[in-house]
Design goal:
single chain, alpha/beta, Rossmann fold, 2 domains, five-stranded parallel β-sheet, 6 helices, 8 strands
């Protein structure tokens, strides 16, 4: 599930003097950080400071207003979009993405199991609860085979057991050499190599 284009590709995520403008408003500027293979970064900060916009920018869905980024060739964005055909049973809906990504039916089965949804394989997605829909988004990410996971509030709507299961999936991705950048207001059960706190630009300027 590759999302958009990047300014370069490698086995690391590198942002250099990034800036982002949305609706005529500067969200952030001069932003720089790096993550290597097997590392995770956490985005924090109040609503409206550009966390989601940064993830979309790195996914290639938004252009930077300044600076540039180098990202792995394969990347998956997990945000509030479900991006599954809700009329289909979960397994069939995920197979659509599997075909796009060159993944097997076995990979679909594994992704559902990792998300704790294998028992709902034949249930149409439209019947899913909030937590089940969130796990379906995560299953789509797991299925992607992408090196870089860009996660926007991945624990939203999850109960305690599901958050623990999410942590296992995230750690497995890192252990396999993947990279994670996650925005989350809920603690995630993995260790982060980098915490990037975004601030409202007016507060940042006042502190300089």
């Amino acid at each position: 599930m590759n999302e958009g284009q990047s300014t370069g590709s490698s086995d690391r995520l590198l942002a250099e003097a990034l800036g982002c403008v949305r609706g005529g408003r500067i969200l952030f500027r001069g932003l720089g950080f790096a993550l290597q293979s097997g590392q995770a970064g956490l985005l924090t900060g109040p609503n409206g400071v550009g966390k989601s916009s940064l993830l979309r920018l790195l996914a290639g869905l938004l252009p930077p207003s300044a600076g540039g980024c180098t990202v792995p060739e394969t990347k998956a964005l997990c945000d509030d979009r479900l991006a599954l055909d809700e009329q289909l049973p979960l397994e069939q809906a995920l197979r659509f993405w599997a075909r796009l990504d060159g993944q097997s039916d076995a990979a679909v089965t594994a992704a559902m199991a990792r998300a704790g949804l294998d028992h709902l394989a034949e249930v149409p997605v439209r019947y899913f609860s909030t937590g089940q829909r969130q796990r379906a988004r995560l299953a789509r990410t797991y299925l992607s085979g992408a090196r870089l996971w860009l996660l926007d509030e991945p624990a939203n709507g999850l109960d305690t057991d599901s958050v623990a299961q999410l942590g296992l999936a995230l750690q497995c991705h890192l252990d396999g050499g993947g990279i994670i950048l996650a925005a989350s207001h809920i603690p995630l059960p993995i260790s982060f190599h980098l915490t990037l706190q975004l601030q409202p630009l007016e507060e940042l300027e006042a502190s300089l």
